[in-house]
Every structure is written in C-alpha cells, then in structure tokens.
Amino acid sequence: MKSIVYSTLPFLHLTPLKAVKECLAIGADKVEVFMEGPSWSRMTDEMRRDLADELLQLPCQYSVHPPQFDLNLASDWQSVREAAIEEYKKAIHFAGLINASHIVIDPGYRHLPLSSLKEARESAKRGIESLLTDAERWSVLIGIENGPVTQKLLFNEEEYVAFVKSFNHPMIGAVLDTGHARLAKWDISGVIDRLGVSLLAVHLNDTSGRVDNHLPLGSGVIEWKKVFQALKYLTYEPDLVLELNTETSPEALRESSDYIQSFMRER
User: Fold this and answer.
1) Which of 5, 22, 3, 1 is nearest to 242 (CA)?
2) With contact defined as beta carbons under 8 Å apart, do 15 and 47 qualify?
3) Is residue 191 within 8 Å of residue 161, measured between CB atoms?
4) Is residue 29 packed enough to be buried (19+ CB in 10 Å), middle (13-18) or exposed (0-12)?
5) ∠ CA 24-98-217 to the nearest 5 degrees?
6) What is the pLDDT of residues 186-216, one digit of tens each?
7) Cβ(7)–Cβ(244) below 8 Å
8) Who contacts 232 (Cβ-Cβ below 8 Å, separation ≥6)?
9) Per-residue pLDDT tens over the stretch 164-181
10) Domains, the chain, ranges and CATH?
C-alpha cells in the first residue's frame, strides 16, 4: 500500500516550514500543505517563492489544500467568486513550484435556500473550469472535495459523483473527505466505488456524527472496515491523507496511521 500522507492541519500554529518538518518527523514522505491561518494570509508572493525553495530541499512530496473558509466559488456575489478564483490560481502556482501532485478545490456552498441551486452549481463548474489553464501549465491535478454542511451543499452523493465526472477532463478528479461524507449521511464505500479512477485522494478523519471535528480514526462513528474494504477493491491506490484537527498530537497521528495500516493489511 501507499505510504500515509499527512496534512499539516494539526500544525497550523507553526510556520508552514516547521509544520512540514513535524510531519516528516512522524514518518511522512508525502505531506498535504494546508494553506490556512495567519502565516498564509500574510504571505507575499515573494515569501511563497522562498518557502517553495525551502520545501523543495526536504525529502518530501506534496499535495496542496488552498484556503477555503472565506472562499466560495458558488456565491451569489460575483466579487466573492472572483476572489476565490484568484486565490485558487495563486495556490495552483504555489503547488506547481513545489511539484505537488494535486490541489484540493471546494466547489462552494449555497448559504441561502432562496438562492438558485442550478446557478450555484453552474458558478462552481465555471469557476473550476477557469482554473484548468493554470493547472495544465503547472501540471497540477484538481481534486474536487465534498463539503460537510448538508443544508448548504450543492450536491447529494450521486450528484457529487456526476459533477466530478461531468468535466470529463484528465486534470480533474475527486477528493473524498470521510468526515464530511458521514455528516451528510453518504454511503462512503458506495461513493468510493462509483468514483473509481476519478478518486485522487481520500481525506481520512472521523466524526462524532454531529459536527465536522476531524477526529482521530476510530474515535467517532464512521464504520472504517467498510471504507477500507472499498479502497482495497480499487484497481489503483489514491492518496490516503490523514487530515485531523488542530488539537491532534503527533502521537495521535501515529496511532491513526497504524489504525489505517492495520485495516489495509487485512485480506
């Protein structure tokens, strides 16, 4: 099986470089760089280039998770959509500088029920399509992630799979977040099966079933045996990314990694 990928999410209190080094100290050989928090929001283009140079010196491969908390490709507001596209393009550029395999893109949310679901989906699709030129230039795949908030989601599980596949483009695939899927009451193993080769990565985290709390694996309500059985049936191996919350200790990360490997070794 592939090595476990570690997200820097638990280490957002550190500088980005130190966060990656923490992941390496745990045993990572691939890290997903999570671009949230003041270290990132205050970073100039020159600082990003310098950081990229430093990251390339480390014995590590990368994927990139851009900022998403304040961005929305599906917003009713054109200025908000344009801001999201601009930030995502900057993140793709950074991903290219560090030779990242893929970037995680949130298609956005519909915050008010009175907003048109059809228009929100169309805005999300146009926004993602507008990123393709940059993604191709930098050889960075786009992974569309599922969200956690059921009443604001653009898609149910069938619609999400159909949305990903509707692009019919080799640069676009899916990133399935297990905690988000469980909160939305999706059949996680079924979604894995239906996505097939479109599945670039899986964000592995558990949940209490009530909030998106990115718990260590086995401490929430997800039925992990079914999830890992579905992953083993795939004809290839997507990235398995441990994306745990900011309260997670290095020891808890190691325990979750061991938890994954114990399931993946089972026949």
Assistant:
1) 5
2) no
3) yes
4) middle
5) 40
6) 999 999 999 999 999 999 999 999 999 999 9
7) yes
8) 264
9) 999 999 999 999 999 999
10) 5-265 (3.20.20.150)
